[in-house]
Amino acid sequence: METVKIKKGDTSPALAATLTYPWPNGASIVDLTGATSVYFNMGNVTDYTPYTSGLAVITGSTTGDCKFNWTTISTSSVGTYWGEFQVNWTGSRMTIPNDHNLKIEVFEDYD
Q1: Are the C-beta atoms of 18 and 29 separated by less than 8 Å?
Q2: How far is 85 from 40, CA to CA, in rounded Å?
Q3: Which CATH number does the domain housing residue 13 bear?
């Protein structure tokens, strides 16, 4: 399972991803051409309560590349979270990864 690590309050680096099916080393890149939006969703690991959600930026439509720019709100609480990307097209959606969750760890900052 992939683990993304970031310090509390940090907003850089952005969370960059190449969306593939199945995640992360799948044979098929998700073509984002025509996607109406891509969201990054993050929630509680025990009960899946949503913690933060935000629009991701598509950086390569045909290559499946996108990035989520962290905000101070999305990294404001220390803890472990689950994350996923949701790609939306008119009339359909795909959640990536679809067979597990990304693990997000927000660590305490000492300043």
Answers
A1: yes
A2: 5
A3: 2.60.40.3350
